[in-house]
Amino acid sequence: MNSPTTASAALEVHGLTRTYGEGAGAATALGGVDLAFVPGTFTAVMGPSGSGKSTFLSCAAGLERPTGGRVLVDGHDITDWAENDRTRLRRERIGFVFQGFHLMPYLTAEQNVALPLRLAGHRPDRARVAALLERVGLADRARHLPGALSGGQQQRVAIARALVTEPAVILADEPTGALDSTTARGVLALLRESVDALQQTVVMVTHDPVAAAYADTVVFLVDGRVAGRMDRPTADAVAGQLTHLSDLVAGGVS
Ligand SMILES: Nc1ncnc2c1ncn2[C@@H]1O[C@H](COP(=O)(O)OP(=O)(O)OP(=O)(O)O)[C@@H](O)[C@H]1O
Ligand SMILES: [Mg+2]
């Protein structure tokens, strides 16, 4: 097991690459990404469609094996861990909000939120599940199946599910993509609070400069590489940077 290079990082990746397919048809989703996320930080990951954002989150969570490079969680190099071990680590340390929500269709909203607690062998804390559903504005939808919820409501169930175990690291793929601006603000405030009050580490993919402004830092991905970063982002500054992403690549930092 390698020793961590950033001693305090909750999550770090080194030289992360991911290629799909082989030969002439091969596509490089990640072309060598180095990033470290320390506890109590909120990072937004932005970039054009197809720039590798979801692939990055999926490799960082150990859901997908990178083609090359290393992934370290709490300083442990999990890259070569067996599937079972990565699954256990994920249950204990990582909350994941999928771009497509991935709710269990035959479980109610509250059962979906409680699922990570059950999988980790804990007795589901009904009060905590109810409080989280209330916090995302779904107190009156707790007994509904996902099929009876709108896209935005399903997304909020997925967010509550990712937070229920108070994981050290929360990886969220466009968690406000299906939400109206008022509901999105509530979710972003909840993520911000997780960072500030509980020292959780949040990495959030977003296309929205207003959402990115809730983060401490924005990382810009272009063609599977880190093309730039911005500390203390404002919505205006992020929007401006997005229109000039190709310039960032030309003068790239990686
Ligand atoms: N399973 C796969 N097989 C082949 N190519 C893939 C696969 N998954 C992703 N890719 C390719 O890898 C690249 C990065 O995809 P990824 O989903 O990470 O992009 P993204 O930045 O999340 O885009 P979006 O903003 O549209 O969600 C794309 O070119 C995509 O077509
Ligand atoms: Mg994506």
Helix content: 25-40%
Number of strands: 10
| Radius of gyration from CA coordinates | 18 Å
Question: Do you know the CATH topology of one domain?
Answer: Rossmann fold
Question: Which strand-content bin applies to the residues?
Answer: 15-25%
The number of distinct helices, counting runs of at least 4 residues, comes to 9
What is bound: which ligands? adenosine-5'-triphosphate, magnesium ion
CATH architecture assignment of one domain:
3-Layer(aba) Sandwich
Alpha-carbon distance between the termini? 26 Å
What is the mean predicted local confidence, pLDDT?
A: 92
Unreliable stretches: none
> What is the structural class?
alpha/beta
Shape: globular
* Largest sheet report: 6 strands, mixed
Main attributes of the structure:
alpha/beta; single chain; binds magnesium ion; 254 residues; 4-stranded antiparallel beta sheet
Explained architecture:
The chain is an alpha/beta fold. It has a domain at about 10-100 and about 170-180 and about 185-245: Rossmann fold (3-Layer(aba) Sandwich). It has 9 helices and 10 strands. The chain has helices spanning about 55-60, 85-95, 110-120, 125-135, 150-165, 180-200, 210, 235-245, 245-250, and strands spanning about 10-20, 25-35, 40-45, 70-75, 75, 95, 170-175, 200-205, 215-220, 225-230. A 6-stranded mixed sheet has the order 6-7-8-3-9-10, sandwiched between helices. Strand 1 (about 10-20) and strand 2 (about 25-35) form a beta hairpin. Helix 3 (about 110-120) packs parallel to helix 5 (about 150-165) and helix 4 (about 125-135) packs across helix 5 (about 150-165). The two termini are about 25 Å apart. The protein binds adenosine-5'-triphosphate (ATP) and magnesium ion. Adenosine-5'-triphosphate binds near residues 29, 51, 53 and 99. Adenosine-5'-triphosphate (ATP) binds near residues 20, 47 and 50.
